[in-house]
Amino acid sequence: MRPFNLAEERIRERSLCRREINRRLRMLAALIVLNILVLIGFAGFKATVTRKATSIESELANVQGRCISLKRDLGVYRTRSSQRTWHAQLADSSNKWLSLMGSILCAVPSRVWLSRVESSDSGNLVTIEGKAVSMTSVSDFIRAIKSCEKFSDVQLSSTQATGYDTMSPQAQHDDFRAFSHGEGSRNRDSTVAFVVRAKIKLAQSDTVQAVQANQTVPQVEESP
Amino acid sequence: MFSLPPSLYCAENVRRAKYAQVVVAVLTLVLCGFMGIQCGVAMSRVSRAEQLLRKSKADAANLSRELSRQRETEARTALPSVDSLESFAVRFDEWARRERVRVDSFVPEGAPVASEIVVEGARLGLWSAFKVRVKGSGEYESVLRLLDNFRRPEVPAKLDSFALQAASGLSKTVINFDLLLTVYERKKSSN
Fold first, then answer.
1. pLDDT tens, B157-185?
2. Is A91 close to B153, i.e. CB distance below 8 A?
3. What is the value of ipTM here, to two decimals?
4. Is residue A216 part of a domain?
5. Chain centre to alpha carbon of residue B91
6. Domain residue limits at A166
7. CA angle, corner A166, sides to A160 and A171, nearest 5?
8. For B29-85, what is each residue's pLDDT tens digit?
9. What is A62-115 written as a DSSP string?
10. Does residue A221 form part of some domain?
11. Hey, are the CB atoms on A221 and B119 less than 8 Å from each other?
12. Can you give the pTM of this predicted structure?
């Protein structure tokens, strides 16, 4: 019988285990090293990204701060611009009256001169007083005003024949001498004093504006 | 490479080494996954911040352009400093003196009406509206030139009604005028 060495089997088994354990320990070590490298790499990457993010966020904060400041400045300028718009609306409101006055003055024919032009407080009526050398001249004047699209209703309120010679020199000056059309009539014997009332034509959008001229600004939204 | 006591090279330790290897491998996977997610989050944060920065820079550039436009407009048409009844009276007097028109009276009528002015959605604050009656006389052409000042948006005032009448006795072209104006005065904040 061949002798059996038990130690030999154990030695072989131990050698196998040793190889296996060493292999696994090497892999273990490699994994640990990999972990460490990943950690280091991640830490470096994260630091870089954080630095970049911080830099971008800081720049963003600056830009946003600038935006806020610009918006604030712009708000001030926009308010001023709105104020200019408001002033323009007020000027436009005044301009309606002034152009109305201009229309009346331009409509005065020769041989007619005015002594009084007045708008009513309610804002839709203009009263014109003056003198003319004849009723024909008064009629010409009324026709000229009627042809102006700014007036909706023009009516002769009264006329009175007056002897020009009876007027005192003082009274003769009670006219708008600027309407020099009337100058030529001075040598006439008589004149016709007249009063004309003209209603102002109101556009739909101007209704409130002209009628309530004594109230607050038209076209402007107001709250009490 | 590794030199352990011979007694440690046994099947039991092989199994333990195997478990340790599996645990470390799983740990590595978890760690790599975590890091990957963290990197993704950080990159996305940077990307978002960059996008926001680009947008903000574009906004700032637009605002800056609009502001410079507004400044140019402001420089061209500076807002007048008239924002009270007194300053309007001074301005009106300047106009009258320039046109050689005599102002006989400048009388506020009634109590002012305070209201908040809102134009195109912009709140201009509280303003008091004063009714003011102005009477005076002057050369016909001068009075018209004086009234022409109301055509320009220089003052917070508007012409409500007017009466022009030939003056007695004076020069041939002198007329009297009687104007009703609404003058706005900025209401000062009480606090």
1. 988 888 998 876 655 678 899 999 999 98
2. yes
3. 0.73
4. no
5. 27
6. 109-211
7. 80
8. 898 898 889 888 888 888 988 999 999 999 999 999 998 988 888 777 766 677 788
9. HHHHHHHHHHHHHHHHHHHHHHHHHHHHHHHHHHHHHHHHHHHHHH--TTEEEE
10. no
11. yes
12. 0.66
